[in-house]
Amino acid sequence: MNQVPIGVSARHIHLSEQHIEQLFGEGYQLQVLKDLSQPGQFAAAETVAVVGPKGRFDKVRILGPARSQTQLEISRTDAFSVGLNPPVRESGHINGTPGITLIGPAGEVTIAEGVIVAARHIHFHTDDAAKWGIVDKQLLSVKIDGERALILEGVIARVSDQYALDMHIDTDEANAAGAKNGDMAWILS
Amino acid sequence: MNQVPIGVSARHIHLSEQHIEQLFGEGYQLQVLKDLSQPGQFAAAETVAVVGPKGRFDKVRILGPARSQTQLEISRTDAFSVGLNPPVRESGHINGTPGITLIGPAGEVTIAEGVIVAARHIHFHTDDAAKWGIVDKQLLSVKIDGERALILEGVIARVSDQYALDMHIDTDEANAAGAKNGDMAWILS
């Protein structure tokens, strides 16, 4: 069976350039704290506060670089705490999703939409996908072993020569499986 | 395939009689807020605060009646918030688990052990188990369908003529599966 490393995504936010400037000041550039598994992606040194109808998170990590649309990714557990009911979506598919208020050191922005629970997915480099006979958008069953073993169904394959092999799940999924960042999972089909 | 209703357990606590008295006062009796799916079990009107090394929860629901040992059941997400690393255990198996501080209106108690992440399990009435050929302690694979479909492995069968059919999972597991209280799951094997 083909093995894939697990990347656990804690709540995080992608910001548009416009929102970076509104939150951090004109011409502001995000600082790189740490490179992520996907080439060119990084955890920024900066965080923002997010404020929902029922609660807030004070330090939500920004992931860079800037994107065309601002998108906040939270777990369903987080969603209950802030009082929102975001749908499970693929990254970038934010049409009709709830909004939220963002607070940075230089200002505050209320986005009309952009809050999602990220759909679990695996990034495959084109070469890995070809070798394993996996195509972009394919839905996979993936087993995470251990004392809380489970099989995730409908894991979306995303294939690109810009990607490195990594399965992205959120903290609810990781905690339900007793898995942590860097553990391995097995693609069943 | 055999269907079983899902009962989602949010964080909760079972208290010994001694701890009820220390937290609420001498001779105190828990008030019934709501009967639970298992005969004789109830959600009490009372809550306690629990305080761990890194955080606290102010209103943790007490489930009654009193038990021989105090036991706090939290999700792994909760465990990170309070700063503990409890093992996944069956109810009652608290030997060597972390302790925590409990605060009630009449006093405060620090338990030396008793914090667990509950192992997922299904309560079967003896008749259901017999009909389906399931025995006590059997490990089952159970599918939860939907847009976050998954298969939980190693779900422990607990069989008694005192039980009503119900699968107990925690909020991490429910959120990972996109499931809510009263949804149905399927026993695969």
From TrEMBL, chains A, B:
<keyword id="KW-0862">Zinc</keyword>
<comment type="function">
    <text>Involved in 1,2-propanediol (1,2-PD) degradation by catalyzing the conversion of propanoyl-CoA to propanoyl-phosphate.</text>
</comment>
<keyword id="KW-0808">Transferase</keyword>
<comment type="pathway">
    <text>Polyol metabolism; 1,2-propanediol degradation.</text>
</comment>
<comment type="similarity">
    <text>Belongs to the PduL family.</text>
</comment>
<protein>
    <recommendedName>
        <fullName>Phosphate propanoyltransferase</fullName>
        <ecNumber>2.3.1.222</ecNumber>
    </recommendedName>
</protein>
<dbReference type="Pfam" id="PF06130">
    <property type="entry name" value="PTAC"/>
</dbReference>
<keyword id="KW-0012">Acyltransferase</keyword>
<dbReference type="InterPro" id="IPR008300">
    <property type="entry name" value="PTAC"/>
</dbReference>
<keyword id="KW-0479">Metal-binding</keyword>
